[in-house]
Automatic annotation (TrEMBL):
UniProt-recorded name of the protein: Putative glutathione S-transferase
Domain GST C-terminal: 153-277
Residue positions of the active site: C45 (nucleophile), Y176 (proton donor/acceptor)
Cellular component, GO annotation: cytoplasm
Annotated site (Lowers pKa of active site Cys): Y234, Y277
Domain of life: Bacteria
């Protein structure tokens, strides 16, 4: 997703422009159909990272292809600058905005990742990031791999939704409220809400391995994509500096546990994360200098969370390795 600033002291995220949903029950204009759509993401973006993880865990790679925009963009939107000829090899576009304009000529709204694009027409279908991963779990069920976990179990949905709402407000979006605040008061309110929520989550996770029940759910995925970027970007760049993640023992162990779980750490490219945040947000980092640290190898150290029990994939199994063209560089 691309951060957009409001005209007020506090950061306010603009609503997504394309709220369509892809469904299996005929409730939308866009039916679930293998090969029809392409999921466009960026390694740098936490909102896109959710969909990358869910697609991996559910084994949807054969039916939903993935295009990967580079970490840098300008006012024209996310760009495929890491692909040959600076174009997505399937859609043939240089900027993601082109898919929005094909769907809506003259489009002047926000262009964000993740976006699902219809391959045959090249038209953007949806950038509804809040519902996209839930729909991958529920609407695409017929195409899940054998052994796919249930990331949004029906009996737990109310609890998952409640946690997701508070995590979104105070953590996922909270770091942006800190980083893009235009006034000291707005920054301090966001900062206090962020760390109050992290403290509460730490207390919850001290005695249980995952946020809801004894398996990985949508709630863990949504929290984790912010935690994994915390020290590399949010602690310094967004002034979320009460503590580093590595200084919060429970959350650091929890985050490492998931990083070392197939489908999580193998979606992360720390260099692209830093290139995006420090290279794109000129109003925060006008020099564009990208920091060399922190050393990412700590993510591979023992975490000890197995002692809390839990079954990462429930009655399912881990996903296989990522497809060759979707692999990230190993930690160095």
């Amino acid at each position: 997703m691309t951060a957009t600033q409001s005209g007020t002291e506090a950061f306010e995220r603009e609503p997504v422009a394309l709220t369509e949903r892809i469904t299996s029950d005929g409730s939308s204009a866009w039916p679930v159909e293998p090969g029809r759509y392409r999921l466009v993401v960026a390694r740098a973006c936490p909102w896109a990272n959710r969909s990358v993880i869910v697609r991996r865990l559910l084994g949807l790679e054969p039916v939903l292809s993935m295009g990967i925009a580079g970490p840098l963009h300008d006012e024209r939107s996310w760009r495929f600058h890491n692909d040959p000829d600076n174009r997505d090899p399937v859609l043939g576009i240089e900027y993601l905005r082109e898919a929005y304009e094909k769907a809506h000529p003259g489009f002047d709204g926000g262009v964000t990742v993740p976006t699902v694009v219809e391959v045959a027409t090249g038209k953007a279908v949806t950038n509804n990031f809040q519902d996209l991963t839930l729909d991958l779990s529920t609407q695409w069920r017929a195409y899940h791999r054998d052994g796919a976990p249930d990331l949004y179990p029906e009996a737990r949905r109310a609890e998952i939704d409640e946690i997701n709402e508070s995590v979104y407000d105070d953590v996922n979006n909270g770091v942006y409220k800190c980083g893009f605040a235009k006034g000291q008061g707005a920054y301090e309110r966001a900062y206090r809400a962020l760390f109050a929520r992290l403290d509460a989550l730490s207390e919850r996770l001290e005695t249980q391995r995952y946020l809801v029940g004894d398996t990985i759910t949508e709630a863990d995925i949504r929290l984790w994509v912010t935690l994994v970027r915390f020290d590399a970007a949010y602690h310094g760049h967004f002034k979320c500096n009460r503590q580093k993640l590595t200084e919060m023992p429970v959350l650091w162990a929890y985050a490492r546990d998931l990083f070392q779980t197939p489908g999580f750490g193998d979606t992360i490219d720390f260099e692209q994360i830093k290139q995006h945040y420090y290279g794109v947000h000129a109003e925060i980092n006008p020099t564009g200098i990208v920091p060399l640290g922190p050393d990412p190898r700590g993510w591979l150290t023992p975490h000890g969370r197995e002692e809390l029990g839990g079954r990462p994939f429930g009655d399912g199994t881990p996903p296989g390795p990522p497809p060759e063209g979707e692999r990230v560089p190993p930690l160095a």
